[in-house]
Amino acid sequence: MSSARKYGISGIGMIIVGALLWQFAGDIETPVITLQKVGRILVVVGAIELVHAIYLGMRGEKAHAGPEATTDPSGPPPTD
């Protein structure tokens, strides 16, 4: 499974869980932060991850591999 697909599945899962928390966890009280706010944060982070997955899918795996993937495999030119 490619990393773009993994990021996409993870992003969609975060959006779904975040949306469920945002909609249905309003009356649950926690000591530090409300679950509705956690849901909103999960939706935003999931959307960012989904956009990143789409970018990776469009660019291919080389976009995620870094600059090493774009170098010439034959090495640097010889110097005299």
Describe this structure in words.
The chain is mainly alpha-helical. It has one domain (3-67). Helices cover 64% and strands 0% of the residues. The chain contains three helices and no strands. The chain is elongated, with a radius of gyration of 20 Å. The termini are far apart. 15% of the residues are buried. The mean pLDDT is 82.
Q: What key attributes describe this structure?
A:
80 residues; mainly alpha; 3 helices; 0% strand; membrane; transmembrane helix; transmembrane; DUF5708
Helical percentage: 55-70%
Shape: elongated
Distance between the termini: 45 Å
**Biggest sheet details:** none
Count up the domains.
1
Brief digest:
The chain crosses the membrane at residues 7-26, 38-58. The protein has 80 residues and is an all-alpha fold.
Task: Outline the fold blueprint.
Elements lengths: L2 H22 L10 H25 L2 H4 L15
Helix pairs in contact: 1-2
